[in-house]
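Troubleshooting log. The previous run stalled partway through. Resubmitting the same two chains, unchanged.
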Amino acid sequence: MLAYVLRRLLHTIPIILVGSFITFVMVSASGDPLGDLLAKQPPVSPAILAAERHRLRLDLPLLEQYWRWLTGIFRGDWGPSVTRVDIGHEIWPRLLVSVRLVVLAVLLALLLALVVGVISAVRQYSWVDYLFTSAGFLLLSMPAFWLAILLKQQAIDVNEATGSTLFYTVGDASIPPPTGFWPTVSDIAGHIVLPTIVLALTTFAPWSRFVRSSMVEVQQSDYVRLARAKGLPRRTVLVRHALRTALIPLTTVVAMDLAVLFSGAVITETVFQWRGMGSFLLSAVRDKDIYAVMAWLLLVSVIVVLFNLVADLLYAVLDRRIRLG
Amino acid sequence: MWEHSMGYRKHSRTLVGVLAAVLVVPACGGGAADGGGNTTNQVKAEANSANSGTAKQGGTITYVLERNILDWNPLGADIGVATQLVADAYDPAPFVTLPDLKTIELNSDLLVSAEQTSTSPQTLVYKINPKAVWNDGTPITSADFDYVWRASDPRVCPKCEAASTMGYDAITSLVGTDDGKTVTVTLSKPFGDWKALFGPILPAHVAKKLGDDGTPEGLAKSFNDGFRYKDSFPDWSGGPFMFKSWVTNQAATLVPNPRWYGKPTTLDSLVFRVITDTTQEVPALQNNEVQIINPDPQVDLLRNVQALSGVKYQLVEGLRKQMILPNMNNPAMQDVALRKALFTAADVQQTIAKTVGQFSEGAKPLRNRIYVPQQPGYKDNLGTLGTGDIAKAKSILSDAGYKVDGDKLVDPKGAPVPTLTMRYIQNNQILKTVCELFAANAKQLGVTVDVQTTDSIGATVTHQPGKDFDLFAMGWIGQTFVSTQYSQAFMTKGGLNFGGYSSAKVDELLTKALGATEESDVAGYLNGVDAQMTEDAYILPLYQVPDLLAYKADLVNVRANGTYFGPPYNAGQWGIGG
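Second attempt completed without errors. Output:
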């Protein structure tokens, strides 16, 4: 197992290197990071422009820029930012914000997807199945930003009706923060509930469809029919035999989606003004901040690799026939 | 199976209908009151006194910033507007431009007086309020003025990254008397915009801690790095508020400065909150998470504001304006007759009707490149430019030897006029419409205008590779200190001369304007500049960009200020009505 993990990790190194180089070239070619500075009113002096160009390493050949970035990573130097922020100092809190936003939503989405998917499969073509199917497709086709805006408006209406602020629409906490334990808990909950619902609903919809189709397929397989024929209780057949196998394709989908979510739920973060990885990437692209984009890319690459690895390892747990080595 | 299918469809229809009703109906309730917009909560009053009132003690006001703050030095070269807005609350300047766009008022909290006592040599005398101190108790003195001068004068500190060096580079002496409470400044040549100097001041004693050891290197270190406060925030204040905290990308929290020496404040705290998505500002205002927003007005956004209860708003004309800039470096735009014809064919009134006129009834064609109608120097110098007079435009072209071959315009040498590239900043729907209307008018002259976007104004209009535009629809943030700004914009090889314009007469008039100390003389010279540019058909001004400020109805003394100072120009007086 350990050898398998190490081999997989080693395989990813050249992929990340090639990917990062291509991205570096593309981002470098996408525009002049000094563009906004050049348009300042009143104008900045040529000396300042030259200093800024030097600080951002734009006076070096492209290959040398890339090499200095790559070697700098190992020393904890993420490279100079157009906006002069310390990228290493900035990106970790952003990742934590995204994780905080995503974890609860993913747990909720997983729970919903399993319940809805299994019930739909077991009660195939019943009114419950139709209800869940319709709701699933409605959520699948609904743009996240639209759902978020509608939820916001509903929450504001609730606040106005009750005369107290139960739900908040921007940020992850009030400023200045409330004092006391319960007011703080209430404030955090009031900020997290809406983005969590949006993320959970938009994420759960496709997952529930995967669970349903897998469960339908597995229930018709020979070994499940054999288990039923042997007289095993319905719940045992469903949970221990059918669901366990049906979870394998879902594991792949969840692993991939999780990597995407941790790299930034861009729309949800934007609508609710959470400063996570998504808004970090948006700002970096807007500012043509080469090294910030590269930092995001590197972190996301590692996350994708890790989650893929976790998915592979989970296969072996879910299906004993799979052996990794 | 048939039954299943029928049932599926029936259930689906019902479900979709119910869900749609649940989701959509509340959203409609929060939308616009009517298609035309409800203006009953609009504040229409005298600009400098709108929404005046007496504030009760206490409360917090949250003001929305649309960009993060990366540099806290308000005099630094690469600050954004947000830095200035926050600086209004803690860093004093000798003069403040009031909302009427023309009154430059002495900051009577900071100064007892500031006068020009002589014009030859130009001498300025500032008398500082004897009670004025920084928040650590250090008196505000001539040393603070001296620090700003040294940091902004490239002769003293060539490495200091100051936003403006104009005027400072002419100072020959700065002397402090009366324990530093009187500052006498002498300049080697007259500087008409002298009220722009030392705005704002910086604490010299803090600068010492930040590296100013009297050497140019130390000065640059304190100014470029120290006052920038990377990953931190200023711990000093000479204004009504002082910093309590700053979380990057989130908010700055300020509390009353206990050593504030001016008119008393009433708020417990003032928060500047970063919300980078404009569309999220109105819901946040409605939900009382923020109390003041100052977004770029758009039809939908304004109607959403109008539909809110418990909210007042102002829609005023500010110093921002839109214009069309020709690129004189490109051969196609070097012929004055072609430029004049294109700008004559452009119908600015029609452009306004289809853009800002839809939500701002006060929007009207701007007929001067330098002044706005609220300023005393404003005068219509545009002649036929911007009138949409196609017949006149055609006669200009035929007089210059142009001919129309089919539907293409041919220049006097017989070559077809090439397709002109007109750009605007991407995602700006209003400027897109401006360009499309301009292109439609040009088409009537036989000129094809290809409308394209750019994602970087800086990269497009400055002397960079890829400066590929013939015409550019762009915004321009005007200032009350017009000589300084427009000398850089219109003088040959000026730093803001994005179109590559050059005129000996304009250079001469601008030089005179810079040296003039009487406002009427300045206006005379600058209107001469404007008239000459009409002759040369350089730049077509379009209109002033309306400035929208919306705030909770119980706030007092909050009012729109369409200048560089912005609404927080009087943040110390903001409060919650009694």
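Takeaways: The longest strand of chain B covers residues 311-326. Chain B touches chain A through 72 residues (CB under 8 Å).
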